[in-house]
Amino acid sequence: MSFASRDAFPARGGVAEDGGRFPLGGGHELVPGPTGPGTRPISTSAAPYVELHAHSAYSFLDGASLPEEIAARAAELGYDAFALTDHDGVYGSLEFAHAAKHLGVRPITGAEVTLAVPGVGSTEPDRTTHVTLLCETQRGYANLCRILTDAHAGTRAPGKERDLLPAATTIDMLEQHAEGLVALSGCARHGLGSADPKATARLARAFERAFYIELQRPYERGDARRNAQLEELARSLRVPTVATGDVHAHHIRRAHLQDALVSIKHRTSLDGSERERRGNHESVLLSPQEMLERLPREAALRSREIADRCQFDLTQELGYRYPDFSDRVDPADVQLRQICDVAFADRYMRSGTAAANGHKKRARQRLEDELALIARIGLSGFFLLHWEVLELARECALEVRGPGSPRHALPPGRGRGSSVGSIVCYLTGLSHVDPVEAGLSLGRFINDEMTSVPDIDLDFPRDIREKLIVRVTERYGREHAALVASFSTYRSRGAIRDVGKALGLPFAELERLARVTDGWDATRISEEVDGMPGSHTGPRWDAFRRLTREIAGLPRHISQHPGGMVISTRPLIDLVPVQPAAMAGRQICQWDKDSCGDAGFLKIDLLGLGMLSAVEDAIDRIARLRGETIDLSRIALDDKGVYEEIQAADTVGVFQIESRAQMQSLLQTRPENLDDLTVQVALVRPGPIQGKAVHPYVKHRHAKRADPTFEPPVEHESLREPLRDTLGVVVFQDQVLDVAMAAAGFSIGEAEGLRRAMSRKRSEASPLYRGVVRERNR
Does pLDDT of 462 surpass 50? Predict the structure, then answer.
C-alpha cells in the first residue's frame, strides 16, 4: 500500500495539479483561522531577547499556564519569537504554535528532556539531569520525536503498566539524533552543565556548533557561583553561552498556583515542598527588556541568534502521509466506485413500483454527486481506508462470535454522527442509514470548501473493538499506528482534593465538599464553599477559593482516547512522540484529537459501545431460550405501546434516554414518533442546554399539542424553514449550517467552519466569525 502526501495538497483554497484540493497538514479547519482574517502577521521587528526555555501546563503539575495564555502574554510583552519546551513532550506544542502564529509570534518547537547519566563505578547511582532541545529543521523535529519516544519507552513496566515510571533517555540516543537540533545544557537546578561536566563535553562534541551552555538567574542561593562555573566550563569546551528564563507561568498572578502544582506533584503540602518549589516567584514571563536587565547581557542577546537558527514551522512542515491505495491496479477513485456499485445493486434492488424506482433514481444521482465530490477533494483513499478497517472488523467479529452464532446476522459495527449523511458511507458499510430516504444533508460531513479530514465515528461491541485495535496495529505496523491521547483535566473533585491537600486544609472538610460538588465545573467551588455550613474563612480558605478557580481545566496527566487511532505511512515517531499506554500492548501519541486534527492526521474512531454488547448478548439469549434468531431490521419503529412507556418516562436501562435529565424531559416533551425521539435525545446535550434551547422547545411543544396549527416564532423569517422540525430552536449541529447559510449568507464551507469553531473546547476563531457576519449584513 502506498500513501498520499499532505505535501501533495496545496495551501488553503488552492487547487492541486490533479484537480484535488485539500489544505496542507497542520492548518486549522477554520475559515478565519491562522492564515485567514484576523490573524496578525508575524512581527518583523526583532526583539533583542527571545525566550528559549518555557513550560506550559503540559509539563504536567509544573507549568501553571495554558499554551494559549503564554502565546498571548508573549505577544503582549513584545516577543516576535518564543520557544515552548515542556518536560519530555510536545503535548501542547501544536496548540501553542497555532496560537502564537495567530498572535504574530513565531513559535519555536522544543522540549526539556530528562537525561539518565550513569554513575561512576559501581558505588555511585545513576542520576537524571535535564537538557533543552530546540528544532532547527524538519529533520531535527523528527529526531526530537524519536528521542522523546525513547525517553518514554520504559515508563510502563511489563505486568505493571498502570504504574507510570519517570521518563529518561540516554546520551547515546542524543548523540545518534543530534542532526537538526540545537542543544542547551539545561536549567539551573537540574541541568547537565552543572551536574556532569564530562557528559556535557560529550554532548558538545555531538552537537558540533549547535551546543550552548545555558545560564539562568532564578535569584536563588548560589546563582552567581553556578553561572561563573558554567561560564568557565563554556570557555574550556570552546562553546558559547546563552541565557534563558525557565518560565513556569505567564503572569505573576499564577505563581502561587505553580507552587501548589509542585506540591501536588510531590504528594505533599506547600510546607513540605519548600525545597522543590520556586518560592520566590521569579520563574514568570517578563518582557525582553526586563530579561536583558536580569541576565548576563551577552548571553541573553545570543538567544536572538539561536531563535533565528530555529526556523522549523510545526504548523506547516510535518509531511504527514496517509494511505491512498495507489499501489493497486486501479486508481483509488475507481476502486471506491467499484465497491459502491456492487453495494448499490444489492441495496437498491429492482422494484416495479414507481415510488421505489424514483427513490433508486435519486439515490443513484446522490451517489454520482458524492463520488465526484470525493474525487475533487482527493478523499477516495480516506474512504477506502475506513472500508478496509471495517473489513478487518468483520474478521474480528467472526473470531469473537464463533461459528454458528446468531450474532452473525448483525454488522460488526455501526457508524454515527455526520457520516450518516453520506451515501458512500452507507454503501461501504460505514453507516446503516439510507441518507436519501432519511433526507439527510451531506454538507456537514464533506463539502467542496472543507479544510480538514472529516471524522467517522464507528461503534463496536466491546469484545470486537478490543480485538480490532490490535488487528489494526498489526495490519499497518506499530511504527505507523497509535491511539490518540486524551488529557485528564481538573474538574471539581480533583481540584478540591489536590489543592486542599497542598494548602493543608482539614481532610474531613475537603471530603464533605467533594461529595456535594457538582463534580464538573471547578470555577464554581468558591460558591459551593460559601454554601457549606460552618466557617471557611482565613488566608488558606481564601487561597483555596482562588487556586481552585485557576486550576480549573488545566491538564493533570495524559491518558488514552476512548478509541481514536492515527495511521501514517511515515513512522509516527517522526511526526509525534509515541509512548506506552496504561493498557498492555497499546501505545499513544502525545497529541489529543484536536491537535491531531490540526496536524491533518487521519484519525479513525473505533469506539466501544456497551449497549451494542448488550444487544448482541440479548440476541444470543433469545436464540438459546426460544430457538429463533430475531432480525433487528424488521422491528417496527411505530409501536404505540413503546411510545406510551417512553412518554411515562419508564426508561430505566433504555439507551440514550435513561438519565434523570432525560426522564424529566420526556414527561414534558412526550415523543410520539421516531423524529420526536431523535429531537429528544439531542435536546439534553451540552449544546442545546448552553444555547438555552430546551425551555423554548418544550414551550412550543406544548403549544403545538394544544393547537396543531401553531407556528413557532423565529428571530427572522429566513430561519423558519431550517428550524421547522425543531419548533423554532437550534437543536442539531446540522441546523447551525442551515441557519448560517440562510441568515448570514455563508457558503457551506464557511458554515461548517463556524460549526467547528463553536464545538471545539479551544478555538480562537469563534469571535472572528462575528466580524464576518457583521460584514455580510452591512
Answer: yes
pLDDT, average across residues 507-526: 89
Please enumerate in sequence order all residues whose Cβ is within 8 A of that of 321, keeping only pairs 6 or more positions apart, or say none: 3, 4, 5, 6, 568, 569, 570
Cell readout for 40 is 496578525
Residue 141 sits at φ, ψ, to 5 deg, of -65, -40
The grid coordinates listed for 699 are 414551550
Taking alpha carbons only, the member of 436, 433, 397 closest to residue 417 is: 433
Average pLDDT in the chain: 87
Q: What percent of the chain has pLDDT over 70?
A: 90
Q: What is the pLDDT of residues 764-776, one digit of tens each?
A: 445 555 555 555 5
CA distance 507 to 158: 35
Helix ranges (DSSP H) in 312-431: 332-347, 354-376, 380-401, 423-427
Helix, strand or coil, per DSSP, at residue 474 = helix
Amino acid letter at 749?
A: G
How confident is the model at residue 12, as a pLDDT? Answer: 26
Amino acid at 770: R
Q: Is the Cβ–Cβ distance between 52 and 134 less than 8 Å? A: yes
Q: How far is CA 421 from CA 22, 427, 437, 440, 753, in A?
A: 21, 12, 11, 5, 18
Give mean pLDDT, residues 380-384. Answer: 91
Q: Contact at 8 Å (CB) between 224 and 196?
A: no
Q: Which amino acid is at 115?
A: L
Side chain identity at 167, as an amino acid letter? A
Cβ pair 494, 251 in contact under 8 A: no
pLDDT of 11 strictly over 50: no
Q: Say whether 488 sits in a helix, a strand or coil.
A: strand
For residue 261, give the nearest of 548, 527, 511 by alpha carbon: 548
Q: Which three cell numbers stand for residue 620?
A: 444470543
Residue 705, sorted as left (phi over 0), alpha (psi -120 to 50) or beta, turns out to be: alpha
More confident residue, 160 or 142: 142
Per-residue pLDDT reduced to its tens digit, 61-76:
999 999 999 999 999 9
With a CB cutoff of 8 Å and minimum separation 6, the contacts of 546 are 256, 526
pLDDT digits (tens, 9 = 90+) for 35-67: 344 455 665 568 999 999 999 999 999 999 999
**Cell 501546563 identifies what position?**
57
Quickly tell me which residue has 504527514 as its cell: 320
Q: What is the pLDDT of residue 468?
A: 92
Q: What global pTM score does this model have? A: 0.81
The confidence score (pLDDT) of residue 43 equals: 56
- Which amino acid does the sequence have at 777? N
Contacts of 155 (CB under 8 A, 6+ apart): 164, 165, 166, 167, 579, 580
Contact 460, 412 (CB under 8 A): yes
DSSP element (H, E) containing 497? helix 492-503
* Interatomic CA distance for residues 688 and 695, integer angstroms: 10
* Lookup: cell for 498: 489536590
Half-sphere exposure of 583 (CA within 13 A, CB side): 13
pLDDT category at 630 given cuts 50, 70, 90 is: confident
Mean local confidence (pLDDT), 76-88: 97
Single-letter residue type at 9? F
CA 652 to chain centre: 33
Q: What is the structure's pLDDT at 348?
A: 86
DSSP string, 213-236: EEE---S-TTHHHHHHHHHHHHHH
Instruction: List CB contacts of 152: < 8 A, sequence separation 6 or more.
Output: 88, 167, 577, 578, 579, 580
How many angstroms separate the Cα of 39 from the Cα of each of 101, 308, 311, 426?
Answer: 8, 22, 20, 39
